[in-house]
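Hi support team,

I'm opening this ticket because the web form for multi-chain structure prediction keeps timing out on my end. I have pasted the exact lines I submitted so you can reproduce it. The total is 674 residues across four entries, so I didn't expect it to be a heavy job. Is there a limit I'm missing, or should I split the entries? Thanks in advance, R.K.
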Amino acid sequence: MVTIKDIARELDLSYSSVSLALNGDTRIKEQTRERVKSKAEEMGYRRNAQARALVMNKSEMVGFILPDIANPFFASLILGAEEIAFRRGYSLVICNTNWSSKLEAMHLNLVIERKIDGILLVSCNEPNPTLEKVLSLELPVVFVSSPYPDAEANFVGTDSEHGGYLAAKHLLDLGHRKFVVVGGRFNSEAISQRFKGYERALGEYGIPLEESDVYPGDFSVESGCNSIKRILSEQHAFSAVLAFDDLIAIGVMNGIRESGLRVPDDISVIGFDNIEAASFSGIDLTTISMDKISMGRLAAEMLLDDLYCTDKPRDRKRTVLDQELVVRKSTGPVKRP
Amino acid sequence: MVTIKDIARELDLSYSSVSLALNGDTRIKEQTRERVKSKAEEMGYRRNAQARALVMNKSEMVGFILPDIANPFFASLILGAEEIAFRRGYSLVICNTNWSSKLEAMHLNLVIERKIDGILLVSCNEPNPTLEKVLSLELPVVFVSSPYPDAEANFVGTDSEHGGYLAAKHLLDLGHRKFVVVGGRFNSEAISQRFKGYERALGEYGIPLEESDVYPGDFSVESGCNSIKRILSEQHAFSAVLAFDDLIAIGVMNGIRESGLRVPDDISVIGFDNIEAASFSGIDLTTISMDKISMGRLAAEMLLDDLYCTDKPRDRKRTVLDQELVVRKSTGPVKRP
DNA sequence: AAGAGAAATTCAAACGTTTCAATTTCGAAA
DNA sequence: TTTCGAAATTGAAACGTTTGAATTTCTCTT
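Hello R.K., no limit was hit. The queue was backed up. Here is the completed structure from your submission:
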């Protein structure tokens, strides 16, 4: 491997000169700088970011730890974050926790060892002592999409409670009065808040949400499909489904149709996130929409901004993005029997 | 930051002992090892992977460079690769090229500077001198999904030509004789091969594929939708659409339906990749299926295996995964007028 | 021709590890 | 007690940079 020393030897310069020249320091004579640069080019020199990071105490990498890379919602977040990170010379280290706080902890430790400069985190929000420890470090962390419950922490996302409210309100406006809630893990803060939003809307109509109306599961099409089939087999009386995300909602619609019922004629379904698939003709899912790519971008920007202003007492930042109801064909007025 | 030296001072040991102890070297007395480890724990020591990488000349990171993180096909590849990488102690650095060889080159340079140990690459296959240079390096590279045209290079993917053949053959078997091909960039090797597969199948029926039957575009729903609308407005005579991937195919179906026609009654559509959305009820896309997560896993395994066997003359490896036609409801027999 | 001042370059330490040869310590055999 | 070998520990260099202080080399002035 070609190093700075090799170039120095070749050019009969000290290696500090070479380093300075390569970094465009004007203390080095213009002509020498050029000589160094072209020699470096010629010899195929590539600077060693590790060595650089060691002495400069920053790696220009950030970690993005999230529950499920393949979930289109998170994939969009990554896309936005990667764009900004790359534009500012940073690389993204991606870690998939598969909704496990154990994996979340392992990944946190791993990226910290790697001396990444900051962390974007979609936490699965289970109690996690490692995360506590990390937050007490000097290392900047931005929570994305799902906020950190207690502590003051940087956050970019939406007002999930409000989103949940919007979703439930829409169904109520259509005349629905009996609901089931499908999917999700309740330890996730974003999900708890969505649920609270549902409850608030229903509360305005004096409708309680019983434990038995709620069917937890994974954030996947398969899980949504299985849940709704179980629900239908239980003869639960309901006219509308509140799904915690679009994948679940799509699964629910699959299940309903496979059971010989129609959406929305027999049952209305509303999702959450507005992933691309929600808009496909044939799916046409009513859902709560937000700009996921911007969310990723803003999160990365918030983190990187934090990295630039070193050692100043950083104050906590919060960015809450708009969201809105997108009405498609999966919801309709309740059928009066 | 707590370093090895701090522990050494605290315990009145040399820092080589501490290093050895921390790495579980048996030359250090059991008891000392334990003492060091618990002290490290107590002081909140985290080893510095940068420093380690510098001296060991390996970073235990691999780069994954690909065209579009948010495309579900690629997202699945990442998921599989991340799983294996993490399991073996490696981190994945993700880079999005947005189908631009310029970005591809920039990312290649960046990850090499970062001293990643190897590269997983879904190349956009445009001529790329930087890539040439990288391949001449000692650095292991595995091409994923889309092979490197000329050179002998590690590859994990499918036989795209065969896949293309299967797709076209299916439509021919259904009686279709007039086709349009929608989407994709032809510089991508995988796409060229799919196209060749189409041609071979049509060739068996003596049907030529004219330039005018082919509508290039992006790998996106939107692009597919726009293309088909243009095609329909041109009054092109055809009964079936060969789409280069599922997103395009879904867009095509959207466009067809929005134009008041039916799939497959009026026009049959076949995709490629079998992304999850293809199976959603309401989409039901006939497509060519392959195991994308396995593809990601195998690629990572191939790369990591290469990293372990250092300095042996590595021979080029190829893994070709099976693929199969999945018939759903987007294709049907041609309607005789 | 000397000296001042600026410009250009170099020195040397530092970043936090690993590693292997060298040294010290220890316990037991002679 | 001495000696020997094994066990345990240490020293020192190396990895490839950056950086501020120190030094050298110029270029003018006078």
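A quick check on our side: The domain at 4-47 of chain B is CATH 1.10.260.40 (434 Repressor (Amino-terminal Domain)). Let us know if the file doesn't open in your viewer.
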